[in-house]
Structures are given as C-alpha cells and as structure tokens.
Amino acid sequence: MQYRRLGSSGLKLSELSFGSWVTYGNQLAEETARECMAAAHDAGVNFFDNAEVYARGQSEVIMGGALRKLGWRRESYVISTKFFWGLNDGPNEKSTLNRKYLMQAIDASLKRLQLEHVDLVFCHRPDPDTPIEETVWAMHDMIRAGKALYWGTSEWDPASIMAAWHIADKHHLAKPVMEQPQYNLFHRERVEREYVPLYRDPCIGLTTWSPLASGLLSGKYNDGIPPGSRATIKGYEWLAERIIDPVRISQVRSLAPLAADLGCTLAQLALAWCLKNPHVTSVITGASRPSQVVENMGALTVVPKLEADIMTRIDGLVGAPS
Ligand code: NDP
C-alpha cells in the first residue's frame, strides 16, 4: 500500500480506503463489519469513511463499536464523517449546512463513533440556502474546537469550492483541503474535466466514491442479479435501476477479456483504473464481505500493468469524456 498526500495538507491517506455506505446497518452484522475493517487494515488501509446519514446514524455506531474492539491506536488511522442531510425533519436539521446544524451534528456523530475527534469532515452536499461564509466559519470553528482535523466538500461544484477556499484564505481560517466526488469508469466528467482548476491551486485532494459503480464494474451483474447483492436491497430500488443498465452491463462484459489478459478480476481492473489518476488521493472501496475486501486490495498489483496502450483500450471499450 502506498500513501498519498491529501491535497495541500500534510495528511497521508492509503491509496485504497474503506467505506460503510449501504453495507453497515443494512447488510452487515457487527462482526462482519469489523472483519471487513480488519481485512482492509491488514492490507495497509488507514482511512475509513463514514457519514451521519448512513443507515441513519447506525453506520457510525457500528464503526465506533468495531474500532473499540479492534483496539487500534487512534493516531494510526483516519476516520471521516459527513454532514448535510441530517437525521431529523426540522427546518434546521435536514438538508442544511447552517452553523446551528453543523455544530450540533458533530457532537452527536462523535458520540456515535465513541471518538473525541474525526480526522476528516465533509460538507456532504452544497446548501444553496446557507451563505458559504457561514459554513466556512462553522467548519473552521469545528476544527479549532478539536472536533475535526481537516474539512472538505462532497459533490460541490468547482466555483463553490473556490469560493469557500477564498473566504477561508481571506480570513485566515481553516481551508477546505479535499473533495469527495463519484469516480469510476462510467462517471468521469467531474474529476477529469470540471475539477481540473482545483488541482494546482488551491490543490484540493480527492477521496473518490463508488469505484465499482455499486458493484456493476465487478461483473457480478453480467448474467443477472445475484441474490443478496446491492441491487436487491429494499429501499435502494433507485440505485438498482442504475446498476442493471443493459448498455453498461454490455460494456462491463467487453472488459472481461482485457482483465483476463492482465491476470486480474474485473473489480481489480476497475479499481486500478481509478488509482491511475494522480489527482485521486484515495479510492474509497466498499464491500459486503471480507473476501471482497481481499480481492479489491489486490488491485494495487494491477496498477503498474495499466500502461498507456491498455488505458486507450479501456477508453475504447467504455468511452472517455470528449
Ligand atoms: P463500490 O462502487 O465499490 O460498491 C461496493 C459494493 O460492490 C459492495 O458493497 C459490494 O456489494 C460490491 N462489491 C465490492 N467488491 C466486490 C467484488 N470484489 N466482487 C463483487 N462485488 C463487489 O463502492 P460504494 O458505492 O460502496 O462506495 C464506496 C464508499 O464511498 C462508500 O462506502 C462511502 O464511504 C463512499 N460514498 C460516498 C458518497 C458521497 O456522497 N460522498 C456516496 C456513496 C459512497 P454487494 O456485495 O452487496 O453486491
């Protein structure tokens, strides 16, 4: 495992990391959740991603319990959470990044995680109803209070990220250092085009999500929907519709001979492809069982095999942003 600097910060994250969306609190019992984290840790993962909204707080409870049992030194790992959607329906409790919500949300999150601080905190989506300046001050104060160490955004447009950065710069506040966008073979535009101005100055780092497009790129849907897979989970029908897209499934099928040539699985090929992008600090993987974690960590050995001609072949099969 190699460790990449998170944007302009001095923090180093494992290039593959592990997150709990959908799985923790929906699919995995506590013991399997812990085993997945242990398998990732054994491979050198030092970053574990979470969010307030995942399983309505249960994902944080499970990860907090797992960390307790695993007993790793707090200094050795990086934990994140994210705020925006909230857990309640009040006007200041959902879909907001106002100061009141953020200051309350971090305290509740830390309690669920059984931690004194999170390392990374993300503004999970932009909030057009709160001035960016108010959010920047709240994130700065959260950091100054020692409840979080670094802050960033998730799926913000580049202009809003720049605005937040400039406000922080002007007032000598903690600057956003990272963004968390979706990035995979089917979702490239934002990372490869829109965010380009953010990479040099202010040098925003990326922790990217859904590298397997929710499992689709592993090839598991090539011959139908396997029982127990993400596309069968109640409440995620909206996601299932995207997963079982026949055009994409045929593109995944077309990648299979290439993966075979490289001596790797489709999942490893798709993850290694994300890792090839030098603007990506850490590719956040997801898994519903430890064996998937082990397979996915094997992507690290595939990265050096992705030479220019292979990358061009992949573009030819799935299409690149024009
Ligand atoms: P992926 O796209 O990699 O999907 C993970 C799922 O794919 C697993 O839960 C599993 O589902 C299946 N899978 C994984 N590995 C394999 C394998 N080797 N073979 C077969 N199936 C496999 O990642 P996620 O969508 O889970 O996203 C990763 C993380 O990113 C999240 O946990 C979260 O931390 C973060 N995230 C952030 C978002 C944001 O808005 N900031 C949004 C979404 C995610 P199954 O076995 O059930 O089919």
The SSE order reads EEEHEHEHEHEHEHHEHHHEHH
* Average pLDDT level: 97
Share of β-strand residues: 5-15%
Q: Kindly identify the CATH topology.
A: TIM Barrel
Number of helices: 12
The CATH class name reads: Alpha Beta
Oligomer: single chain
Hetero groups in this structure are: NADPH dihydro-nicotinamide-adenine-dinucleotide phosphate
Radius of gyration (CA) equals: 19 Å
SS-based structural class?
A: alpha/beta
How many structural domains are formed by the residues? 1
Overall, the morphology is: globular
Give the low-confidence spans.
Answer: none
Structure description:
With 322 residues, the protein is an alpha/beta fold. The protein has one domain: TIM Barrel, CATH 3.20.20.100. Helix content is 41%, strand content 14%. It contains 12 helices and 10 strands. The chain has helices at residues 30-42, 58-70, 99-113, 132-144, 158-170, 189-194, 196-200, 237-243, 246-262, 266-275, 290-297, 308-318, and strands at 3-5, 12-14, 16-19, 47-49, 78-83, 118-123, 148-153, 176-179, 205-208, 280-285. An 8-stranded parallel barrel has the order 3-4-5-6-7-8-9-10, surrounded by 5 helices. Strand 4, helix 2 (58-70) and strand 5 form a beta-alpha-beta unit. Helix 1 (30-42) crosses helix 2 and helix 9 packs antiparallel against helix 12. The longest helix has 17 residues, at 246-262. NADPH dihydro-nicotinamide-adenine-dinucleotide phosphate (NDP) is lined by residues 19-23, 27, 49, 154-155, 180, 209-215, 218, 220, 229-230, 267, 284-288, 292, 295-296.
